[in-house]
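Here is an idea for our session: we take a single protein and study its fold together. Start from the sequence, derive the backbone structure tokens from it, and show both lines together. Once you have written the record down, we can walk along the chain together:
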Amino acid sequence: MWGVVQMKFLVIAEARDSIVGDAVRQLRANVATAIQRITASGKLLAGGILGGRRMAFLLLELDSADDLLELLGSELIDSMQCEVYPVISFERIGQFFQEHPI
């Protein structure tokens, strides 16, 4: 039987440009709620703010891509432009290059 293979994802989230003025207070509250949920899930490997912009990054370890939607939740999906990238280890890419030489 196959075990669960966890996947790592890098999420880059940037606040939408349309969120200004009083809407910033709600954005901050929504993001704080999402970050608390993500942290409590135990799936956050690293995260932080990217200086100079209204951006954050999350490095997540998940059982499936479907977990991503639930973890980010509407707080981030509705207020942030999120880019998601699967993370492949240097070890795995090295194996791939050996298995698929030029």
User: Anything to note?
Assistant: The mean pLDDT is 92.
